UniProtKB/TrEMBL annotation:
PROSITE patterns: ZF_BED. Keywords: Metal-binding, Zinc, Zinc-finger. PANTHER family: BED-TYPE DOMAIN-CONTAINING PROTEIN, FINGER PROTEIN, PUTATIVE-RELATED. InterPro entries: Zinc_finger_BED (IPR052865), Znf_BED (IPR003656). GO terms for molecular function: DNA binding; zinc ion binding. Residues 1-41 form the BED-type domain. This is BED-type domain-containing protein. It comes from the Eukaryota. One of its GO terms (cellular component) is nucleus. It comes from Latimeria chalumnae.
Amino acid sequence: TKLKCNLCQLVLSHGKNKNDCGTSSMMKHLSVKHYDTFQSLRAQESEDKAGLNTYQPAITDAFAATCPWPQDHPQAKAVTRRLMEMIAIDMQPFSIVEDEGFRRFCALAVPRYNLPSQCHLSEKVLEDLHENLNFFIISNLKQRKTNRKHSTCG
């Protein structure tokens, strides 16, 4: 098998053995005929190796990136909130979370998210959302009432 130097177009042999696919003949050619290029390649190779060895995550960190989020995790809460928004806006039934296609989609889109059951959505999440909305509305009404008392009519 032959190989060709891209710098000078010289054709080189891999070696005596036909099954030998090594690069030693090309490296020797580069070191002798193209010394500057050879040195810059070696320097780049050293930088690449040094960069690879600077950080290796702990095994616990590597596995943590694949573990599902608990329900109280901020990301899980945010996804659940958006799920509830989607259900409300698109007028979907809570049972959508039990549909196989939807479950597959969520597993691909947000692999660390555990889809809640339709019972959990309709009882716990909806109740919490209702309480939060009531608090928000009442707070805004009180604020408007306070602002009206302090405003002057002219």
